[in-house]
Amino acid sequence: MKVLLDTDIGSDIDDAICLAYLLAKPECELLGITTVTGEPERRAMLASALCKAAGREVPIFPGAPRPLLAPMRQPHAPQAVALERWPHERSFPVGRAIGFLRDVIRSHPGEVTLLTIGPLTNIALLFTLDPEIPRLLRALYMMIGSFGRNDAGVRLEWNALNDPHAAAVVYNARPPLHRSVGLDVTLQVRMDAAEVRRRFQTPLLRPVLDMAEVWFQERPEIVFHDPLAAATIFDERICTYERGIVEVELASPRLAGLTHFTPQAGGPHEVAATVDPDRFFEEYFAVTGS
Q1: Distance between CA atoms of 115 and 181, rounded to whole angstroms?
Q2: C-alpha dihedral sign at 42, 43, 45, 50
Q3: How far, CA to CA in Å, does 164 sit from each of 14, 43, 168, 225?
Q4: Is a pLDDT exceeding 90 seen at residue 156?
Q5: 193, containing H or E segment
Q6: Rounded to an integer, what is the distance from CA 184 to the centroid of its chain?
Q7: Does the predicted TM-score (pTM) go above 0.85?
């Protein structure tokens, strides 16, 4: 399956865990990676380090460093401190991320699955530049939002919060399949630091673990938000979905980025409703070999 990945790797560790899975998945033909938010070049270096650990040559393009209109919340890529210990490329084409995505999708109409696991700035720019792109996709999978499942209160999710205007643009697009995996589901897929250290010992996962040690300085566990979204592309039984329409809050400064989901038969969006954590972990570690 042809996949494009848009990521803010270098902040939450789950992006690196997700990329490792895609690099190891035999059925995944990873056509390219674009990075987004603060220090996109350093994020590209982190992606390059994992590609080299996997022995893969994948095109990598730094993308938009700032949200469309919202305040900057993620100016740095803290996990980049691990770069000195892992081989990686240091120079990347600048200013070409959106054009790269556009060219790849247009070269493979109906074949590309676009997976977004960061703020949606790059994707909003892409869909605005070329409004035909959404319908040329095979599918759009996103880790974003929170849709009220298993969640007692209002919850703002980081990717939507970081660029709510971009999220609104992307939810207004109409690809053939538009699936979102939100916090209310991903928060059920966790692993504590001790178990991560025990299991992340393969050549591909060792650099991920090195990056994770930066994460563990402030948090005792990992939530597998992004890898869950990736795994659902290849195993539809990991999650179940509900169809409806998603709207993004823009009017309220305090709640900007909140994702409102209204169930609707035949609606344009599908949101994950349930998850089988055991099935997910079996899939993830079978692929990564740990």
Answers
A1: 11
A2: positive
A3: 21, 21, 6, 19
A4: no
A5: helix 193-199
A6: 16
A7: yes
